[in-house]
Amino acid sequence: MQENKSVAEFILLGLTQDPMKKKIVFVIFLIFYVGTMVGNSLIIVTIKSSRTLGSPMYFFLFYLSLVDFCFSTSIAPRLIADSLSATKTISYNECMTQVFALHFFGTMEVFVLILMAIDRYVAICKPLRYPTIMSQQACTILIILAWIGAFIHAITEIILALRLPFCGPNLIDHYCCDLQPLLKLACMDTYLINLEWATNSGTVCTGSFVILMISYIVILHSLRNHSAEGRKKALSTCISHIIVVVLFFGPCIFIYSRPPSTFSMDKMVTIFYTIGTPFLNPLIYTLRNAEVKNAMRKLWRTTITSESKR
């Protein structure tokens, strides 16, 4: 409850206290963030403007890029700004908002990856029924359910955070607000809340990862019945998805699926899925996908042609 707190703001210690390293952090993560914004924006615009990218796979890829855009924006700007700031203060309300955004967009990414796996499973294992099962209406309903599920999870996390009383100190040994570092500052016994947090987030991460891995094993196993050309195309798409799943879920499981404890590498691991994965996703999906690359070339040529006619 907010009335239990006496701390009005927190101080984020960030990644480093060394002045030179702070400048390096600023440059590196500014490049990552700009790359994330440009890459995901390009995919969003390309899918929306292309007539050839109207399949459910690209419908879900659109939302993955949108979520990556928002996910990175909820974390990276403050990290970049704080790397050059003398005082890295964040108000209580801003901190709680960041906790909500981190879990809302992070969970939404989990659900979108699951929907992409379902789409590939139906396309490869039940090709004749694919248009019926993965209709536009069905895909829209699935995305709405994903937004609702992500909201419920984020609300659960923020309720746990709002129950914490803070009496000081107010130093958060992290570059962003999350429940785990906040639990260390609470002036109460946090064992039960820690258990609830680990159960909630850990189940989402580990359970989703297991579901995804099983689905892709089934998909890869079923490819033996396809032609060489069909197998090659499906394998290329599935490998892209598997790479994204491993890169995202590996760090998430490490952070959220373990007993209450803090390791020195936690901040670097968190960077990997909050900033690294949103940056890498556009590269993985465009470099390995000929249809997306062709659509981007057409969009680029159309833009250049329209500009030259002015």
Automatic annotation (TrEMBL):
It is found in: Cell membrane; Membrane. Its main location: membrane. One of its GO terms (molecular function) is olfactory receptor activity. GO terms for cellular component: plasma membrane. InterPro entries: GPCR_Rhodpsn, GPCR_Rhodpsn_7TM, Olfact_rcpt, Olfactory_Receptors. The keyword Transmembrane applies. The chain crosses the membrane at residues 24-45, 57-80, 100-118, 139-162, 201-223, 235-256, 268-287. Residues 39-285 form the G-protein coupled receptors family 1 profile domain. Keywords: Cell membrane, G-protein coupled receptor, Membrane, Olfaction, Receptor, Sensory transduction, Transducer, Transmembrane, Transmembrane helix. It comes from the Eukaryota. It is a multi-pass membrane protein. CDD domains: 7tmA_OR4A-like. Belongs to the G-protein coupled receptor 1 family. Putative odorant or sperm cell receptor. This is Olfactory receptor.
